[in-house]
Write a structure and sequence with these properties.
Helix content of chain A: over 70%
Radius of gyration of chain A: 18 Å
Number of helices of chain A: 11
Shape of chain B: globular
Number of strands of chain A: 2
Number of domains of chain B: 1
Number of strands of chain B: 2
Strand order of the largest sheet of chain A: 1-2
Largest interface: A-B, 46 and 44 residues
Oligomer: heterodimer
Strand content of chain A: under 5%
Structural class of chain A: mainly alpha
Radius of gyration of chain B: 19 Å
Shape of chain A: globular
Strand content of chain B: under 5%
Largest sheet of chain B: 2 strands, antiparallel
Chain lengths: 288, 300
Amino acid sequence: MMSAFAQAVLNGIMNGALLAVPAVGFTMIFAVLRYPNFAIAAYISTGALAGWVANTWLGVGALPALVVAFAAAGLVGVAVEEAALARLRPSGALTVAIASIAANLVVENMLRFGFGNDLRGYDLPLRPDFRIAGLRIGPQAVETFLLAAVVMAVLFLFLRFARLGRAMRAVADNPDLARLKGISPRRVAMVAVFLGAGLAGGGGVLLGLDTAIDPLTGYRVLLSVFAAAVLGGLGSIPGAVVGALSIGLAEEVAMLAIPATYRSAIGFAAILLILTFRPRGLLGERAV
Amino acid sequence: MLSYILFTLTLGGIYALLSLSLNLIWGGAGMVNLGLAGFFAVGAYASALVTGAGAPLVIGWGAAIVVGLAAGLLVTFCTLRLRDDYLAIVTLGFAEVVRLVALNERWLTRGADGISGIQAPLKAELGTAGFNLFYLGLVAAVVAVVWFGLRRLDLSPYGRALRAIREDQELASFAGKRVLRFKFEAFALSAAIAALAGALYAHYASYVSPDHFQPLITIYIFLGVTAGGVGRPLGALIGGYAVVAFLEATRFMAALMPGLSPLQHAALREIMVGLALILVLHLRPQGLLPERIPPAPRVP
């Protein structure tokens, strides 16, 4: 029993690291543009399939596939934003959110049109699991975890030190003040969307390394991603990481007690709990 | 051909009810419900189960309304004090949980197999063709009653207060309106209407399964309400019928493209739905029948 619990905790941390990447992407777009972008699901699937193409057609490894997926999903994200969402911003956050659902439907079905509904797996070498102190650890899971950690580290360095990254944080903090200081809101918005969608796409590859993927992969994890972002506080990037780890853990540990089919309900339960007791999330701003 | 037209019109009525439900909160109070399909499902299952246990139809519909009200209160309970984006996320989650329960609690919902043989009122007496005609009229009558009620609500002081909340929540609360209570009531009423639509659907199709309540339905209804006119019950009603007509039209448009697999057909249709919603939001966000805002009375 004890070892089952320890195994669940271990799997939970891995699972959480994987969720953190798209959750940060979602919360980043929210921080700068102040609307929940539901198209994040399609960006995750776009990245997962772009990485799959790079991996199985061109035969590249996990890291280059991740880069390809980041770029592909980021570009799709910017294209959708410019073509379908940007002009709706004056009508309010909810209108943009609804348009993003429509955009999600369009992109998702373009993927289905091209790739079909079949589940696809990445082409990866099979390696036996390690056993440490009675716990099973797959080498692939370790690699995925490390990749997620590297992505997060690069992102934090960018936000902390790069000029553009700091400009982004400034806009998220106070858009008017940032504009007065000569930061172009349009440019920052574009970079935020590129990075946010790109991170979602990167998350898609991590999912693909972990399990099989299809055009609905993103939609299936959408609730967990939202839960991570809400738990950490919408718009807070460190919050999204903490939230993702918590949701990842909760999902795996809960599976000890409830049937696996209810996995995606855990995220929903977590959202309800956090909104009832601490609506601004663990590390977030006020939510009222 | 006739039965196809009757079916489409009946489905249009059910979508019109869902559109009226969404319009009440979105057009009325500026709240969104991304889990409309979930409330629709809850009503369908509630009525199917209650009448399946031997209760008469009226009790089944009543049960659907009550369960819808309760679900609406549950969903809004912890989100209404917060910004509207949270409600959007929670309602989306609600629909997903409803789908999971419908899929997995086999003792209650019979899982993916669904519940078949749901009581169809007077079908034995009227025969299939007669039943289809009768049910079309029944649905249209319910739509008319709900539309009339919501229109009255819209014109009443209650409707004005809701719209004040939509425009400026703080100002409305300064004016002494109990904002939270208004939002609670409006959302619960809207959820109950969606559930009633579900009950109507269940007894028409005689069969419900989780597949009938895809999240896509919610997007269809958003398309209907935006195209028809947000904030005006008649607009939403027409939008509901129009969206069913549009969905049927995409079937023929997709068929014009030769050499596609059935899956690509389906994908193409959904792309058209998404594009249509984006286009309406860009080109005519006020819809076909824009909301009428009465001019302020002149000071004599």
